[in-house]
Amino acid sequence: MYRLLTRTICSFLILMLLGGCWNRVEMNEIGIISATAVDWEKGKWVVSYQLVIPQAISSQGNSSATGDAPVNVFSTEAESIRKAIGDASREMSRKLYFAHNQIIVISDTVAKKGISPLLEIYMRNTDARETVSMFIAKGKARKLIEQLLPVEKIPGTAVQRLVENEAASSSVYPDMTMYRILLDLLGPAQATGIPQLMISGAKQPLSSVDNLKETYTRAKIKLGELGVISGDKLKGWLTPDEAAGVMWLSDKVKRTTLEFDCTNKGEPKDSSIIIGGAKTSLKPEQRSDGRWIMNISVKANGTLLEYTCPNDLQKPELLKQEEQKIAEEIKNKMETSWKAVSRLRTDIVGFGKAISSKYPKQWKQMQKDWNEEFPETVLNIDVKFKLARIGFSNHTFKEAQSNTRK
Amino acid sequence: MFFNHTNSSGTKQPKGGSSRKEGKEAPFSPSLKNNIDTFSRRLGHSSDLEIKSFVSDLAPDITMSLIYLSEMVNEQTLNDFILRPLMVVKAQAEERSDDLIRLIKEQMIQVGSTYSTDSIEEAIDMLLNGYCLMLIQESTTGLMINVSSKEGRTVSEPTTQTVLRGPQQSFNESLSTNINLIRQIIKSPDLHIESMIIGTQTRTQIAMVYLHGIASEDVVKTIYDRLAAIEVGSILESGYIEALIQDKVYTPFPTLMNSERPDAVAGGLLEGQIAVLVDGTPFVLLAPVTLFQFFQTPEDYYHRFDIATFLRLIRFVAFLISMLLPALYIAVTTFHQEMLPTTLLITLAAQREGIPFPGLVEAMSMELTFEVLREAGVRMPRAIGPAISIVGALVLGQAAVDAGIVSAGMVMVVSFTAISSFVIPQFNIAISARLIRFTFMLLAGVFGFLGIVAGFLAMLIHLAGLESFGVPYMSPLAPFNWSSMKDTFIRAPHKVLLKREATNKINRSSKLE
After folding, report:
1. Alpha-carbon torsion (A390, A393, A399, A403), positive or negative
2. Are A381 and A335 in contact (CB under 8 A)?
3. Which residue among B337, B343, B448 places its CB closest to the CB of A30?
4. pLDDT the model gives residue A195
């Protein structure tokens, strides 16, 4: 018994030497990074970090903490990204901790140069997690992570929530996390779209806590256009309208608000519905002359949110008409973005993926110059929209008012 | 021995057949004075040793003596039922010596339990148990009369194993009361009781209780043999017996259960367990036992099955929490920060700002503080009870956080761990969990999750190897028995359990062979 005990203790002690506590890090020894920005200036990578200052955020502790900036931004530069991160130890008292990094913003210069070095880091390292959301900034990326957001305490987390919220409720931009980008760029078409993050409003950015003392903010962060990446380089931009069609084409619409014109007279589109569910299926087909036809069928349903025409919605034939109009609207969106995408010659809508899975042999032959051939594809769009609910009222407000007068 | 020597050399008149001549057994001397001298010498002339010599009308020429320990007997009984009859009776008896003793035993004494003995050693044993010894001139037989008065509590409410619903009786220190309480619940002739005396100094009476036909014969024999093999000077509590008959000494897990509730013991007996009752303690031992039985309370069977199941599951979770929570906290905060949600990480990091110690030291100091507080709570006099909670909760808890010695999160972890450990109905397994907790904390502080997983596996291996009187400690999980699952983690409705009981009778005999 004692021998066993001695052996256990000895082996434990030896194991302690082997394993040791070498990677033990107390929480007050790490610098938590919530956002990273990557710029390319004068032949060097400039990596900026948004460092969270926990004391300023936590509700616990001294009252003096409130009013302090919740984050601190600083940059390091070197010829490789990883070296720049390593150099941070020369100016930081704490070990930079990237596991909770929420967003990464790259400048358009970096995007045009190619994002492969960045992707390389994310594929190779364990501490950098692939759940981080990526954005492109026009101009200096560092500017964006210097921004403070009203209500939110950690800007990095807030921006990620912004794009998650957007993807869930209006579906104009996809939430491009690192692993989705990797999947897209390593997939058949090797193309993807990354949303632009921009500061809108005043020239003076919101980087001081004092600005939060007012009831309005002069500048705010918002999502701009959709950057189209082909290979690993930025190919061009899609406007929000064009981007919305891409979401429809690539079956990424979850919930979105759609406006339409109920009068049929080309009047402003002042009625709207909310799409509750949508499903796009792509069926590629090769014509005898070698060109591809893409049969796109969309099935969607939605709820009427706003209706300005004095029509009686209890009539089924009228509903059919409206459904038709909405379907047409969806089709228009898809065509608009198809034009933009074929102009950029970048398959971010996933046609290549559809063909490669259905016709693997043909795909192998044409894979090389797919992005060139891709604009030649003929679209055959069929949209079926179903108005599931019209809301609580059968009449417009005006009509209801005139009814009571009778 | 000195007495052995005097008796064997001093008495030349062997009394036909009645005196046994075994090594230690010293016989009485025909001389009353010699006998009285022997007793007062053996008992060290103790002040409570009463020797009353008198002459009865029964045989006016014969001196009689009553020897007893005044503190151990009920003098009222002694006067009313022994002395008075002897004084009042007029009849002149012809009988002398041994015959006279028999006459007195059969006709005079009006107290239930009497018997004659030839051995001084036995007489001393009985004297110490509150018997009164009657000696008469010329006789080598002593008459023992039971007039003992034992000081004891009445049957009261259980204090350590309380229930909301169920009988509110608990065992007390008297062995006979305890047996009585069990007999009151199980009125079956199959309830067998075997008693023995253990301890050369304390001469403690021990009773082994089991239901014949339900308890496994092998286990009964094993326990009996282990009890019989005990050679110690003193038994003060059933904990001694537990330590001396358990299967493995070097394990933090108890392999015997104890209970102060008659219904719990009766329940155990009906399931085939064997109870060991020790005189002088209300805690009755139950064996064999499995790990999962420590999480069951008699109350489980009194409540509705769904409620009982829920409560039982809570207990299992609480057990794991009380063992692992501080270790998990240490591992997560010092090795695996990426596991936490960002906001939680920042909150915890903010709390840890300015804390001078590493997580492990922080946790260790808080856990040790709690253990000290708990121990103080048990040891101190009842009257200053609230003082401990004030010092513990306010001064230590709040001030430690305010002073920046420990983080608020750690205080929460420690308090929740502590509360969880009180959920487990059996104190002895709860204390095991508390002990193991420190090992896990060390492992977590050195190796992180790796250490916790390794430690947990080692613990499971140890548990799987444990046995309690031939029953695997982890059964019915290992070896797996599906039908027993209905009453292990969950408590199935009684209707379902009845079916199990029927099949189990067959299983049990084969399982324990």
Report:
1. positive
2. yes
3. B337
4. 92
CB contact A68 to B (< 8 Å): no
Mean pLDDT of chain A: 85
Q: Does B347 contact A24 at a Cβ distance shorter than 8 Å?
A: no
Phi, psi dihedral angles at A395 (to 5 degrees): -115, 160
Residue B460 CB-half CA count within 13 A? 9
Burial of B80 (0-12, 13-18, 19+ CB in 10 A): middle
CB B392 within 8 A of CB B398: no
Total Cβ atoms within 10 A of residue A117: 16
Place of tokens 């047409």: A328
Helix H or strand E segment including A257: strand A256-260
C-alpha A46/C-alpha A77 separation (Å) is: 4
Between chains, do A34 and B342 touch, taking CB under 8 Å as contact?
yes
Burial of A72 (0-12, 13-18, 19+ CB in 10 A): middle
Say whether residue B346 is in contact with chain A using an 8 A CB cutoff: yes
What are the tens digits of pLDDT across the range A112-143? 999 999 998 888 887 778 889 999 999 899 98
Structure tokens at B500: 């199990």
End-to-end CA distance of chain B: 47
The pLDDT of residue B331 is above 60: yes
Distance, in angstroms, between B455 CA and closest chain A CA? 11
Tokens representing A93 are 């008292």
Q: φ, ψ for residue B64 (rounded to 5)?
A: -120, 155
**What 3-state DSSP class applies to B87?**
helix
Backbone torsion region of residue A223, taken as left when φ is above 0, otherwise alpha when ψ lies between -120 and 50, otherwise beta: beta
CA atoms of B247 and B253, how far apart (whole Å): 11
Question: Which residues have CB under 8 Å from B395's CB, separation 6+?
Answer: none
B421 — contact with chain A (CB < 8 Å)? no
The residues that bridge with B27 in the sheet, in sequence order, are: B119
d(CA A21, CA A25): 9
Cα separation, A256 vs A251, in Å, equals 13
CA distance B292 to chain A (A): 27
ipTM of the complex: 0.78
Provide DSSP, A184-223. Answer: HHHSSS-EEEEEEEEEEE-SS---SGGGGGSSS-SEEEEE
Residues of chain A where predicted confidence (pLDDT) is lower than 50: 20, 63-65
Break chain B down into helix, strand, coil percent, rounded to 5.
Answer: 50, 15, 35
Q: What residues pair up with A271 in beta bridges, in sequence order?
A: A260
A329 in Cβ contact with A275 (< 8 Å): no
**Is B338 within 8 Å of chain A by CB?**
yes
Tokens of B320: 């794991």
- Four-CA torsion B353, B357, B359, B363, nearest 10 degrees: -120
With a cut of 70, say whether residue B392 has pLDDT above it: yes
CB B371 within 8 A of CB B434: yes
pLDDT at B305: 93
CA distance B499 to B505: 11
C-alpha distances out from residue A304 to A256, A284, A301, A399, Å? 12, 33, 10, 17
Highest mean pLDDT out of A55-59, B7-11, B143-147: B143-147
Q: What is the pLDDT of residue B16?
A: 35
Hey, is the C-beta of A202 within 8 angstroms of any chain B C-beta?
Answer: no
- Most B-contacting residue of A3, A24, A51 (CB-CB within 10 A), to test interface: A24
The count of CB pairs under 8 A between chains A and B is: 82
Strand partners, B119: B27
The helix or strand, by DSSP H or E, that contains position A377, with its residue range, turns out to be none
